DNA sequence: CTGAAAGCGCTTACAG
DNA sequence: CTGAAAGCGCTTACAG
């Protein structure tokens, strides 16, 4: 059996209350009993039962992370950032993956409530109204990660419109005028739609024509990038550059260009998004927008910490900015 | 305030015990009170407090995962596999990352004990004696993931010697005789040492000479692969193939070969290890050994489940085998 | 079929 | 400086 406060108390000849106080560093006990209590606790290998403690303090020192998919590099890095800072704050992390499914999201919010977590970090697709409602009812402090959200929930994310704009502007600054895009799905309001908006905005602001047929949809994966690029080349082989909404698709684009007997960047320049390791593995290395995944993680955890402890938030919505990584896949025209 | 059993009991006019039994599906209450209890519970939005429940049942339905690093693709995928099956078994997952540091590992074992987890999955570097000892004392059911371990702890992993052998044998079968290796650190008894052993064994069994100077150490990262390959080319430009202990290093090798003005696979063939996405991003695509990360994850979770429930294990050590992915980076001589 | 009681391992006023 | 008591929200024999 595990050793309890009672065991220590009996052995020392004091009461559980005293042992509890001493072990928790509450004010003065006689130096003598203090010493003895610590001694006996160590001898017996006492480990406080946090479950029992949580029941009375109503704090579990654990927070729940609801996330789409750990096998995805991007989310894995966000999770990593969260874990690092959580452990610094002495919070444990319960991780639940949802695949972006609303049903799973609801299930886990309920579960985390039952487990009495002190707070929730939500990094799983767009947050449906049902989740918001449930979160409100359960009254668990929540911060949304990597998603803009209409709700007044605190959140930390990047500005996808602005960052895409930056990528496309870079191509324009390098003299490109006929720029295609390999996008995500426009129904995905985040990396899908917003990155398209940034692309269009950049063209528009620079008096370049937006041709809808030059925006080809992929699913962020490498293969879809290949297919999309092939389609683009078939449609219009006079383009000189392409902006891909993910590095995987960007690398796919490079592959397709080469397969078509053309060269990157001599014939076609490519810019990606993410700064995934594959952007460095490709040949040529892919120019890309570097997302601060780890920072997204730790900033959200910091925010949540403040919310839990009732501290004021200076900003309810934090936008982190991304860095343009200039590499060999873009040429100056 | 959260609604409790007591609230329901009062409203229905029965006792907490009855409510508890009904909600837990314990045998027969009158159909009438059952209905009413469920009704009231739903109306009040009752959610059982699992902390209170755990205190009495001595089960938390959560397991702890001690893992090196979530930002690392390999471990992230292992974690993903674990999470998927854990949630199927209705276990929550507390994830703690250690960076492979013994001190952190010990800290988290203690913490998980205090949190009364039902079991631990250990996927963090070689397990030091101190951890084994602590695990024994705390008596938490444990399964080791992706690491061979002398101890009689159950474990699931791949056979690094055998899989490396397979990779090198493939090169030999394709007519290669002068094969270099980009290895990990030999002090790392797993992917470091064992992959070197497999390489040597394959050469040996095929009467090829082992030249220590053709084994150059990297750190599994892309850059180190480039450096190692440059060194190898400097030492002996008559080699026709290289086996890299990771895909990142393999891709690095390809880059170095190209930079030296040679071609892959025409001049030098390359085989990697992992089947990381970058093996597909590289040009040419990298032939590699595909590790079953997700399966590593779920098999270990399944094993742990059995241990927790006192079921007999047919095998205490499970070896999963890897698949050789034949791609364009190897040529037949 | 249901109640009353004890207990899980802690913490925390309240006294003294 | 320390005890005695109550309580956190449940479950589970034990009666009846």
From TrEMBL, chains A, B:
SMART domains: HTH_LACI (SM00354)
Record flagged with keyword Transcription: yes
UniProt KW keywords: DNA-binding, Transcription, Transcription regulation
Entry's transmembrane regions: none
The HTH lacI-type domain, residue ranges: 3-57
Molecular function GO terms recorded: DNA-binding transcription factor activity; transcription cis-regulatory region binding
Keyword Transcription regulation: yes
UniProt xrefs under InterPro entries: HTH_LacI, Lambda_DNA-bd_dom_sf, Peripla_BP/Lac1_sug-bd_dom, Peripla_BP_I
Protein's recorded name: LacI family transcriptional regulator
């Amino acid at each position: 059996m595990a050793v309890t406060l009672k065991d220590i108390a009996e052995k020392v000849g004091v009461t559980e209350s005293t042992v509890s106080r001493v072990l928790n560093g509450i004010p003065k006990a006689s130096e003598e009993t203090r010493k003895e209590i610590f001694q006996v606790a160590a001898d017996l290998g006492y480990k406080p039962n946090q479950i029992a403690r949580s029941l009375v303090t109503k704090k579990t020192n654990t927070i729940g992370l609801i996330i789409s998919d750990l096998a995805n590099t991007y989310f894995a890095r966000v999770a990593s950032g969260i874990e690092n800072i959580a452990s610094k704050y002495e919070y444990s992390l319960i991780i639940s993956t949802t695949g972006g499914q609303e049903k799973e999201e609801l299930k886990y919010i309920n579960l985390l409530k039952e487990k009495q977590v002190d707070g929730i970090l939500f990094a799983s697709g767009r947050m449906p109204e049902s989740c918001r409602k449930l979160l409100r009812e359960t009254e668990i402090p929540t911060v949304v990660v990597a998603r803009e959200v209409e709700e007044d929930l605190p959140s930390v994310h990047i500005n996808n419109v602005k960052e895409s704009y930056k990528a496309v502007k870079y191509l324009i600054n390098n003299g490109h005028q006929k720029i295609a895009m390999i996008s995500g799905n426009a129904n995905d309001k985040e990396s899908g739609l917003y990155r398209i908006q940034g692309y269009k905005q950049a063209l528009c602001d620079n008096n370049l024509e937006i041709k809808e047929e030059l925006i080809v949809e992929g699913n962020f994966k490498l293969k879809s990038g290949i297919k999309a690029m092939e389609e683009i080349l078939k449609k219009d082989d006079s383009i000189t550059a392409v902006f891909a909404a993910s590095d995987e698709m960007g690398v796919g684009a490079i592959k397709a260009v080469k397969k078509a007997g053309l060269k990157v960047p001599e014939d076609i320049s490519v810019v990606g998004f993410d700064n995934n390791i594959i952007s460095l593995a490709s040949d040529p290395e892919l120019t890309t927008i570097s997302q601060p995944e780890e920072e997204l993680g730790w900033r959200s955890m910091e925010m949540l910490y403040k919310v839990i402890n009732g501290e004021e938030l200076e900003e309810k919505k934090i936008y982190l900015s991304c860095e343009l990584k200039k590499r060999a896949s873009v040429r100056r025209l």
